[in-house]
Design goal:
Elements (H helix, E strand, L loop, with lengths): L1 E11 L2 E5 L8 E8 L5 E7 L2 E6 L7 E9 L22 E3 L3 E6 L6 E3 L2 E3 L1 E2 L2 E2 L2 E5 L3 E12 L15 E8 L22 E8 L3 E7 L8 E7 L10 H6 L5 E3 L10 E7 L6 E7 L2 E7 L14 H7 L3 E3 L2 E3 L33 E12 L1
């Protein structure tokens, strides 16, 4: 059974490791590694537990994006999904690994796409813009992905604020690429419903939003979360950690944004609910659940519209931009946005970036 893995890896002392389930390293069919920035990257060793790479990069913190394909006979006849001993429970569904097409870039270099992943670059090697999945998905049960926001860490001369790592989807009968793009808010493009699994203000604050409407700026329900990275003079940190209101999630002891974390989006069988869970190591937090409280100002949604849209098809449209970020409106107006030392982080130039990898979609079918 052929399987695919795509993810970013970090190097220490010139060596990086792609971890794979025991036995997958020696059953490699093909592997491709792309270094973020100048330099080369090569395979050093194929081991039972994964693949070691070596680089000649002069970057003090080099990183590469790896796309791996392997063929591994499964003793259970293929009842389990790649790299996790978790059965696919939804009846009548299949697991898909999305490919992507580039929609546009902002800074001259296209986002780097591969099966199951996309990289929007890193410090000094920005690949901002938007991509769109090559397929839409009908009656989705789950979406999973690994997310790396470490490239948005603040550094001298760059706050990392106001840049948005957006992992979202829109509903359309045809691929919403270039002139066919649509969403729920931007007035310059046609309307379609939208799910924002993740929108960020740097790697400091997250927003998770479900839009179900019939026109622009319609009903939406959202929840927010924040990380330790927001503990800077440019954020109202004391207000953040004291906020116990519904729909507010403190991730300080759950997610360390220096390292990748996992996202699972799970839809109820009747589409009456959507639950988003973030996890890292042995810790996890639910950051969106229709059965729990939402941020004040959220609308009551007609969930039958989600069920109807699932028969049309949802397309993944991840992006990296600086046109909007959460944290500037009540009741979670935590970002000071005061200019000077608290100015917006520039999208281009040295900038930063982020990446998605290991994206898997469990759905009834694809378009």
């Amino acid at each position: 059974m052929e399987e695919h893995v795509s993810q970013s890896i970090n190097f220490k002392n010139g060596i990086g490791h792609l971890p794979l389930r025991e036995g997958w390293g020696i059953n490699t069919t093909s592997v491709n590694a792309t270094l973020f920035g100048p330099g080369g990257v090569w395979i050093r060793d194929v081991a039972d537990d994964g693949i070691d790479f070596v680089t000649d990069s002069k970057d003090p913190d080099p990183k590469a994006y790896v796309y791996w394909v392997g063929n591994f006979p499964q003793p259970d006849g293929g009842k389990h999904v790649c790299c996790q001993d978790v059965p696919v429970e939804a009846k009548g569904t299949q697991e898909f690994v999305p490919g992507f097409d580039v929609d546009y870039n902002d800074c001259g270099d296209d986002p780097i796409v591969s099966a199951g992943g996309v990289s929007f670059g890193s410090k000094g090697n920005v690949h901002s813009g938007r991509v769109c999945s090559q397929n839409g998905y009908i009656n989705i049960a789950t979406i999973e992905a690994d997310i790396d926001l470490s490239g948005l860490n603040q550094y001298a001369g760059w706050t990392g604020d106001w840049v948005n790592a957006a992992f979202y989807a829109v509903t359309s009968k045809a691929q919403p690429l270039k002139g066919g793009y649509c969403d729920a808010e931007y007035s310059a493009v046609p309307f379609c419903n939208e799910i924002d699994f993740l929108e960020t203000n740097g790697n400091k604050m997250f927003q998770h939003t479900l839009h179900l409407a019939k026109d622009k700026s319609g009903p939406q329900r959202w929840e927010v979360a924040f990380t330790e990275a927001a503990n800077t003079p440019c954020w109202n940190w004391d207000q953040m950690i004291a906020d116990k209101d519904p729909g507010v999630h403190n991730l300080v002891d759950v997610i360390n944004v220096d390292d990748p974390f996992h996202m699972q989006v799970k839809f109820a069988e009747d589409y009456s609910n959507m639950i988003i869970t973030l996890s890292q190591n042995d810790k996890s937090a639910v950051v969106f659940d229709m059965n729990e409280g939402a941020v004040k100002g959220s609308a009551t949604l007609d969930m039958s519209m989600l069920k109807e849209s699932m028969s049309v098809g949802w397309w993944l449209t991840p992006s990296y931009h600086a046109s909007w970020s959460p944290g500037t409106t009540d009741p979670t107006h935590w970002y000071k946005d005061s200019g000077g030392a608290c100015s917006h982080g520039a999208l281009c130039g040295e900038g930063g970036g982020w990446s998605l990898s290991n994206i898997k979609i469990t759905a009834e079918s694809q378009i």
